[in-house]
Amino acid sequence: MKAFSAIVKLTFRSSMRSHIFQLLLALLLLCIVVIPVSISVGKAEEFIRVSLLYSLWAVSIILSLSSLWLGCWIMSQDIDNYQIHMVASKPVSRITIWLGKWTGINLINIILLAISAVTIYGIVMFRYQSAGQESRLAERQSERVRAESEKERIRTKILVGRRSFHPTRPDFRKIVDEQIKRSVNAAANEGKRLSDDEIAGMRSELLKRLTAPVEIAPGKAFVWTFENLPLELNDTGIYLRYRPYLGKISSEDQSNSYWLWQVAMPFINPENKTFNVYPQALSQQPEMLMTGVFHEKVLPKGVITPDGKVQIMVTNFDRYGKKHYYQQADGPQLLVPVTGFVENYLRGMLVMVIQLLLLSGLACALGGILTMPTAIFMVCSYLLFGSFSMILTDSEFYAESAFDHLGQFIAGVLLWGVIPLQRFDVTDLLAGGYLVEYAFIGKLFLKYFVLRGMPLFVAGILLYCVRELGAAVRK
After folding, report:
1. Which pLDDT score is estimated for 473?
2. Cα Rg for the chain, rounded, in angstroms?
């Protein structure tokens, strides 16, 4: 144990003497301070979102790169500079050396992450407390009320951890397969045979049509159904979050429009326990709101039916006869507050720690058996394979040709062994007030750290133990 702690201390002191720690800390603090000021326009809500989204993302990227570089550099340089020969000649196992250096690297990263996280949290809370400060000191009552409503909006939308529920979606691929099967059979009955290219084009066209954004013409309505909702949520506040587009799906040329939301409220018969639903409007008249941005509404209590369903309907009342569009990624969705911002923020930091432990382990595994440039190249290539495989297997990627389908198949096979770093990005969850679920954290740890990372760590340690150190001596 003394040898292990000594190696950890030596690794940490080495980074301090080479000013790596100081340089990384200065770079991190610079990004934390500069990014929100340069991107946001001064509003408290936007400033906080930018700090949680872009500042945390920059911290994650910088520490991830430093984990890769430090792991490869410390492991390979000790061998290339003959420093490892002095340690290995003592009664210290190479497993202890490897684990000690890995722990030392992670100690550096966790300290840097802790300082960055505390700084971002302090900036966010300071900006939250000062939100609308000038308006609260104003003489007009309306301005003071607007300032308090801004703080309440930030607290309920961002500084919170809310669990999200999405509308029930059909199995698009199953629907497409059934449609193609019927088309193939119909063509066969007519004595025709569809080519592979025709089937692939038909599949792509059907998928695009089924997964296209919801389009609502003026005067028309659309209904979304949420299923399998816990009945205990009837006693809590449920928020409806949505973002409509007017005329086209673009952040440009958006303007005010009118719509009316309704929800199906259950009426339960106490005699036979059956129930019916009746529509209840969420506003007295069609609302005029800006399109292209997110909006939220509070649903009435008791909205969940006894079979765990919620139905909501929106009607387009645009005065100029333009269509409304709703993307699947933009809702509507139901949000339920579960925990406060501090706990949710700590959950996000835990995900980042798991990511850093994984990356430093990969770097140490390859840095102990390869030269530094080769080790960095191999780790980066491995991670890029994971990122590209994730993109190719995404549901929004439409395979139009046989080559695309082959690429998707290969990417699906690779995902059984590679690690897509996109899975560890929680900045959008924290910036949107979404809950970082413990189940999500456990899945990341088990699936990527234990089942994929640890076998690579063990392989790297075994190869490091049998590596001939004398081969590193330059002649």
Report:
1. 47
2. 28
Of 331, 357, 379, which residue sits at a domain end? 331
Structure tokens at 380: 């980066």
pLDDT tens per residue across span 384-431: 888 877 776 765 555 555 666 666 677 777 778 888 888 999 999 999
Domain end: 331, 362, 394, which one?
A: 331
DSSP string, 15-31: HHHTTHHHHHHHHHHHH
- Distance in angstroms (rounded) separating the CA atoms of residues 302 and 310: 10
Residue type, 249: I
What pTM was computed for the model?
A: 0.83
Please tell me the predicted confidence (pLDDT) of residue 475: 43
Strand, helix or coil at 255? coil
Residue numbers of the chain with a pLDDT score lower than 50: 136-138, 472-475
Same domain, yes or no: 249 and 317: yes
If one counts the domains in the chain, the total is 2
Could you tell me if 149 and 224 lie in one domain?
Answer: no
**pLDDT tens per residue across span 429-471:** 999 899 999 999 999 999 999 999 999 999 999 988 887 665 5
Domain span holding position 286 = 213-331
| pLDDT of the residue at 405 | 63
d(CA 438, CA 244): 31
CATH number of domain containing 252 = 2.60.120
438 and 326 housed in the same domain: no
Same domain, 319 and 406: no
Provide, for the chain, the percentages of residues in helix, strand and coil under a 3-state DSSP scheme, each rounded to the nearest 5.
Answer: 60, 15, 25
321 in Cβ contact with 218 (< 8 Å) = yes
From residue 364, alpha-carbon distances to 319, 358, 371, 459 in Å are 63, 10, 11, 11
- Cβ atoms 377, 383 nearer than 8 A: no
Question: At residue 304, what are phi and psi to the nearest 5 degrees?
Answer: -85, 130
